[in-house]
Design goal:
This protein is mostly helical. It has one domain: Amino acid/polyamine transporter I. Strands 1-2 form a two-stranded antiparallel sheet. A hairpin with a 2-residue loop joins strand 1 and strand 2. Helix 4 crosses helix 15 and helix 8 crosses helix 11. The N and C termini lie far apart (57 Å).
Length: 568
């Protein structure tokens, strides 16, 4: 198959899904454009901050995409391009986009609260505590994996010790990018410029950052960059969203949309041929297509992390309910398109059906820069800009997931019955945002030492199990509020089956290393084993509680309540 046909097919299928299935869901569940959203009702200048739909879309898309839709399809392509393409399209439309829309919709209808709150409201406090603990452990895995990826894209030296100018330029540009975002955030917050002026300034800052990065590359080792990434993430997770998260995502949206747009143009001009086999077999390199394919592609088709972003940060910025569908459902379908671009890139670089060498971000950047070279764009410049885009994805995900992990940790110990003046010292410590962030990042750093390659299988499994739990909770919400929730039933059962199987295989592999083959490392394998076992236990307990609520009979009601009373 050639790249043009695959791209054309993806655009038609994904665009059609938005206009038909997405609009049908919107009509079925109900949208009230006149309702006062949580961003206005609970505006606090920190987390609840109304933002233009374009800004929230940029935040949602950049946060959920991360490195997932690039890493996942490229790694999973070992099974052949047909299984990957089918799962991206089917999973993205009927699993991922539905979940993201439901999560944001449920959150906006419940004062911008997270999926954890929805669980407490409709399932019970015990279910909420278990889910929050799961989310916190999952957030640690995401930060560990993505921090390692970002540090790798900033690494100024090759494996042989030579200078890496592309990575050096990416590092410089990213630093300037962060400073530019802070300036843009302060300018927007205090001056309230028009959309035109805001866009013009953002584009000028973006172009300036890229030019300075290309001219003044930084050559610093990966280990040093890891320290910087964790310091930055700590600051980003406790800073008001208007000061860094919103303006950074606004800047990112231009960069990322431009990258995808130029990649699509490059594919249509270069028309690359898929050099990978259509199907390589059910077992490849010792990995079985079920469940590995489904947990590896992760964000490119369905991701539990999306539900956390949609209900944890984006929902608190929505100005009008009519923006929910394009920001959630639309962003997920755009991510599917990015995943298919990554698939085309790896397929074009394969030689004789053999996967290309290198990390997925490098393969992606090489493939896209190769497409763009047909337009006369110098390969070194396009490679540096694409690498910057990948790092921007991952850094934005780090911003969001660190904040989500911090909020989950705080919410785990918070008690509405405790008054501010009567809180104990331990209670104040555990609910303090700085302590919660530090606890999350410390464990993330210890895991990141193992490298993202070792963390990715566990991250993928945990991510998809989180998706199953979110789908179960959202199905309960839809049932309790008398809305059609049958669209979530098949996805939640499939994802639960896939992820529990994958986690079982992960646990078995680590135990085999510990008991049989040797090579067990305490700080990496030991932590992964503990995480895997805890995730299985927590996942099963939350799923059991949710299924009980879904299957129980509802008493006859005369009205359709929007919000149920929380269980005591």
């Amino acid at each position: 198959m050639n790249g043009i046909f695959m791209m054309f097919l993806a655009i038609i299928v994904l665009g059609g899904a938005y206009l038909t299935y997405g609009k049908w869901l919107e009509r079925s569940w109900g949208i009230d454009p006149k309702a006062k959203t949580p961003a206005y009702e609970l505006e606090d200048g920190v987390d609840y901050v109304p933002a233009k739909s374009g800004v929230v879309f940029g935040h949602q898309f950049a946060s959920i995409a991360g490195a997932g839709p690039i890493n996942g399809p490229i790694i999973a392509a070992m099974f052949g391009w047909v299984p990957v393409l089918l799962w991206i399209l089917i999973g993205g439309i009927f699993f991922g986009a539905v979940q993201d829309f439901a999560a944001m919709y449920a959150s906006v209808k419940n004062k911008g609260r997270s999926v954890g709150y929805v669980i407490e409201l409709y399932i019970g406090k015990t279910g909420k505590k278990l889910f929050l603990l799961f989310v916190w452990l999952f957030s640690i895995l995401v930060v560990a994996a993505f921090a390692d990826i970002v540090a790798g894209t900033f690494n100024g030296f090759t494996a042989e010790g030579a200078l890496n100018s592309a990575n050096g330029s990416t590092a410089t540009t990213s630093l300037i990018f962060i400073a530019a975002a802070v300036f843009l955030g302060l300018f927007n917050y205090y001056k309230k410029p028009s959309s035109f002026k805001m866009t013009a300034i953002a584009l000028a800052l973006l172009v300036g950052s890229i030019v300075l990065g290309l001219v003044f590359p930084l050559y610093i080792s990966k280990s040093i960059w890891q320290y910087f990434v964790f310091i930055y993430v700590f600051i980003a997770s406790v800073t008001p969203v208007w000061a860094l998260l919103q303006p950074r995502d606004y800047l990112n949206s231009f960069l990322l949309v431009a990258m995808i747009g130029s990649a699509i143009i490059g594919v249509f001009v270069a028309n690359p041929t898929m050099e990978l086999p259509a199907y390589s077999g059910f077992v490849v390199n010792g990995s079985m297509m079920f469940p590995v394919l489904f947990v590896t592609i992760a964000c490119g088709a369905v991701s539990g992390f999306h539900a956390l972003v949609a209900s944890g940060t984006s929902s608190k910025q929505i100005q009008n309910e009519k923006h929910i569908l394009p920001i959630s459902f639309g962003a997920m379908l755009l991510e599917c398109l990015l995943a298919i671009i990554a698939l085309i890139a790896v397929g074009a670089l394969a030689k004789g059906g053999v996967m290309p060498q290198g990390t997925p971000p490098t393969i992606f950047a090489q493939g896209i820069s190769g497409f763009l070279s047909t337009l006369g764009i110098p390969a070194n410049i396009s490679f540096a800009v694409i690498t910057l885009s990948v790092s921007a994805f991952a850094l934005t995900s780090l911003d969001s997931v660190a904040r989500v992990g911090r909020l989950a940790f705080q919410e785990l110990f918070q008690d509405d019955a405790v008054e501010a003046g009567q809180a104990s010292a331990s209670y104040k410590l555990l609910t303090n945002k700085h302590f919660a962030t530090a606890a999350t990042l410390l464990l993330s750093y210890l895991l990141s030492i193992a490298g993202y390659q070792n963390i990715w299988p566990l991250f993928g499994s945990a991510n998809q199990l989180l998706s199953a739990l979110a789908l179960i909770a959202l199905a309960v919400f839809l049932k309790k509020t008398h809305r059609k929730g049958f669209t979530l039933w098949v996805p939640m059962v499939v994802m639960l089956t896939v992820t529990l199987t994958a986690l079982y295989q992960t646990i078995a592999k680590i135990l085999n290393k510990l008991l049989v083959t040797g090579g067990f490392v305490i700080y990496s394998d030991g932590l992964q084993l503990v995480f895997a076992v805890l995730l299985v236990i927590l996942g099963v307990m939350v799923a059991f509680s949710g299924f009980k609520k879904i299957l129980e009979k509802e008493p006859a009601v005369k009205s359709q309540p929007m919000v149920a009373t929380a269980k005591k």
